């Protein structure tokens, strides 16, 4: 079942990547050889190692701690599929965006929280590398699941996903996770179709799109999160921007593309994909 979710997202990323390639969205320094390497390394490892490991871990813990609940909520999706699916998406998105916000927030003052936060920052940092330090790099769809190897094991939304699977919400997990994964991938494609509506000559179209951007996250919103500038700590949500608007105060709606993407790669080691993906510098945890 989890394989179908993974394959559906990989198929979309493959098709969008081919479009980017044919449209010239990877040329002229927009994408580096390290970007390609990280995309392959992170995607293959996520599908072949991390997700299976998390499925096993949640099932193992469940059978030790609450064996009586295995498959116990299956009836719920049979009777209330759409409300449960909506609740699943809302909770999963809240957990993801909350952890994402934590990864970008100012330094925590309480030491235990600071240590946890630095682990999240190390885990998330590779996701914000685009191209090299020449400033030409741009976001592309293959960046969707590029993170540090640590990140997937500490993200609470992944543990929530597979806990729901353990509890018997199989179809809810399948449809909810596939939809969220596809929406997140579509926000990383090198396109900005939402700008057409945000800059439309008819006011009612502009206002409707502006209102929609308060509820759902569209590509340009997420691209600005990947920008090097004032918006890099904005638009934390992959799907439901209503959390950015009403909960985190991090909503940013712009009417043009970012002028520069990506974070500066400060250390020479960060140009090595193995260092990006595996290294944990404990000196940064102080």
UniProtKB/TrEMBL annotation:
Keyword field: Membrane, Oxidoreductase, Transmembrane, Transmembrane helix
GO MF terms, alphabetically ordered: oxidoreductase activity
Top-rank lineage group of the source organism: Bacteria
Regions crossing the membrane: 6-24, 36-60, 80-102
EC number assigned by the record: 1.-.-.-
Keyword Transmembrane tagged: yes
Protein name, entry field: Sterol desaturase family protein
Organism: Zhongshania arctica
């Amino acid at each position: 079942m989890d394989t179908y979710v993974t394959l559906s997202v990989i198929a979309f990323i493959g098709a969008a990547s081919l479009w980017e390639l044919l449209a010239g969205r990877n040329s002229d320094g927009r994408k580096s050889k390290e970007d390609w390497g990280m995309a392959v390394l992170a995607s293959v490892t996520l599908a072949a190692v991390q997700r299976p490991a998390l499925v096993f871990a949640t099932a193992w813990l469940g059978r030790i701690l609450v064996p009586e609940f295995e498959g116990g909520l299956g009836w719920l999706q049979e009777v209330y599929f759409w409300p449960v699916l909506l609740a699943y998406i809302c909770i999963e998105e809240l957990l993801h965006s909350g952890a994402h916000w934590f990864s970008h927030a100012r330094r925590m003052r309480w030491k235990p929280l600071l240590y946890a936060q630095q682990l999240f920052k190390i885990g998330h940092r590779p996701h914000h590398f685009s191209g090299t330090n020449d400033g030409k790099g741009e976001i592309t769809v293959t960046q969707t699941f590029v993170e540090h190897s640590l990140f997937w094991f500490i993200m609470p939304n992944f543990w929530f996903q597979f806990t729901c699977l353990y509890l018997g919400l199989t179809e809810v997990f399948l449809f909810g996770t596939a939809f969220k994964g596809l929406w997140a991938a579509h926000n990383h494609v090198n396109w900005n179709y939402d700008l057409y509506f945000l800059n439309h000559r008819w006011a009612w179209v502009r206002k409707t799109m502006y209102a929609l951007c308060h509820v759902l996250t569209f590509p340009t919103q997420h691209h600005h999160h990947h920008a090097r500038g004032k918006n890099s700590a904005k638009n934390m949500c992959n799907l439901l921007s209503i959390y950015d608007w009403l909960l985190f105060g991090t909503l940013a709606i712009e009417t043009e593309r970012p002028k520069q993407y990506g974070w500066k790669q400060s250390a020479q080691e960060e140009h090595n994909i193995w260092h990006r993906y595996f290294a944990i510098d404990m000196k940064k945890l102080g």
